[in-house]
Each structure stands twice: as C-alpha cells, then as structure tokens.
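Hey all, quick one. A colleague (J.T.) asked me to put the zinc ion job into the tracker so the inputs and the structure tokens live in one place instead of scattered across chat threads. No bug as far as I know, just bookkeeping. Sequence used:
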Amino acid sequence: MEKQICQSCGITLTEENKGLNADKSQNEEYCHYCFNYGEFTEPKMTLDLQIKKLSEMAISNFNLSEDEALTMAKKTLPKLKRWQH
Ligand SMILES: [Zn+2]
C-alpha cells in the first residue's frame, strides 16, 4: 500500500496526525498541522513557504543536506492537491 501523505505539507499521515473536518470526522487528505475543523490552519500558506518548511524539517529529521532537502521538497509538494490549480 502506498503511504498516505498530507496533501498540503507532505508529511506522512498516520491515524494520530490526520486533520479534522468541520463535523469532527477525520480528514483523509490533510494533517492536523495544516487542516483542522474544516479549515486550513494557515490559509495564507504558499507553495514556496511550504517548500521551505518541509526542507527545514527534512534537514533536521532525515539528516539531508540543504540541497537534497530542497530538491525533495520541490519534487514532492507541487504534486499535492493543495498546490494544484
Ligand atoms: Zn500537513
């Protein structure tokens, strides 16, 4: 099974970190850092900012170099639902 990732920030979705819909059911596409109670927590978030955030997370959590982290973030994030226009 393909692992589910948040369609906004790209982190792996687990039963614990899924966001909630307005009716408090679990949202299957976004984590609770990005989306909760039916709304995006940071409606002004942009793709560029999200790329920066994800690469910083990857540098500290996965020991990637800045270049590797940025490449990964730029490859992953533009494909996600929130950033498709
Ligand atoms: Zn997220």
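Adding what we noticed when we looked at it: The chain has one domain: 18-83. The chain has a mean pLDDT of 95.
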